[in-house]
């Protein structure tokens, strides 16, 4: 087996330490960051961690195929819409292909036994290793002494006695180790995957219920704005600030159009789905429900969608603003 590994670097403390343990044993490390454009991990932190460690870093996007994992996970969901076990199997399968491409002998992760309730218990750790086709070649250095020896340990490529026996959710031991080694570039522990967040998960469930083949771009849009569904084929996303308004305008294409007023401060509205003329007034109504009355100009309001412009007379927008508010997703 080659004295080289692929280490999954998320930018977090655990993956940083796992990689450091390999470097201390003279193992050649290829860093790998698997990017979710809408996910929880931080690419800049992963790049900073790789630079701090002096290892090369490959960045790979997971692609739209990952959304099939979210839709129908073999091992089910966690508390929200998080398919943690299936997610790791998918990610580690991608990492295995890269591992074979660069000629590395095994894969390294920063997983800690008992840290995550769904995917980092002893039984799912074994399932993930087997289903990803990494039997004996998936090394978890931070908890290695609590797990069965892997092939690189058995073959003497990795000295098992220099690996750790960490478990549980506390990160005090990791923080102390990082300070001991002078490692400072890592992201702080946070809430985890977006799919564990109740609000994001609710939007994701609505998306998968109404879109046969959602894309990563659709998932990105779940991270911004207020979402209102008009019918099974049409949804509106309202910007919550000037930056989101600009970002939503950037998503306009043949299947999405942006409705915005150039004459008063208010939210942009990205309309997704079946575009019907009848929805224009409905979207204006939704916009007006999120604008303070004192910020509305006297007289007619002007709206634009792409190059099209039209005006809404004061009597019409007063009726719209008084209409019942639609429920957000």
Structure description:
The chain is α/β, with parallel strands linked by helices and 329 residues long. The protein folds into two domains: 4-180, HUPs (Rossmann fold); 224-321, no CATH class. It is 36% helix and 16% strand. The chain contains twelve helices and eleven strands. It has helices at residues 13-24, 43-53, 66-71, 84-102, 122-131, 151-154, 172-180, 198-210, 216-221, 242-250, 278-288, 314-321; strands at residues 4-8, 28-35, 57-61, 106-108, 138-139, 226-231, 234-238, 256-259, 269-273, 301-305, 308-312. The strands form three sheets. The protein has a five-stranded parallel β-sheet, sandwiched between helices. Strands 6-7-9-8 form a four-stranded antiparallel β-sheet, sandwiched between helices. A hairpin with a 2-residue loop joins strand 6 and strand 7 (234-238). Helix 4 crosses helix 5 (122-131). The radius of gyration is 24 Å and the shape is elongated. The chain starts with a strand and ends in an 8-residue tail after the last helix.
Task: Tell me briefly what this model is.
The chain is of the alpha/beta class and 329 residues long. The chain is 36% helix and 16% strand.
Key phrases:
11 strands; 2 domains; Rossmann fold; 329 residues; alpha/beta; 5-stranded parallel beta sheet; 4-stranded antiparallel beta sheet; 12 helices
Give a short account of the largest sheet: 5 strands, parallel
Order of helices and strands: EHEHEHHEHEHHHHEEHEEHEEH
The backbone outline, from C-alpha atoms, is elongated
Structural class: alpha/beta
Overall mean pLDDT = 90
Q: State the CATH class of the largest domain.
A: Alpha Beta
Kindly provide the radius of gyration, computed on alpha-carbon positions and rounded to a whole number of angstroms.
24 Å
Figure out the total of helices.
12
Low-confidence segments, given as residue ranges, are: none
- Total strands: the figure is 11
Strand order of the largest sheet: 3-2-1-4-5
Distance between the termini: 52 Å
Please, what is the CATH homologous superfamily of the largest domain?
HUPs
**CATH 2nd-level architecture of the largest domain:** 3-Layer(aba) Sandwich
Number of structural domains: 2
Helicity level, as a percent range?
Answer: 25-40%
Content of β-strand: 15-25%
What is the CATH T-level topology of the largest domain? Rossmann fold
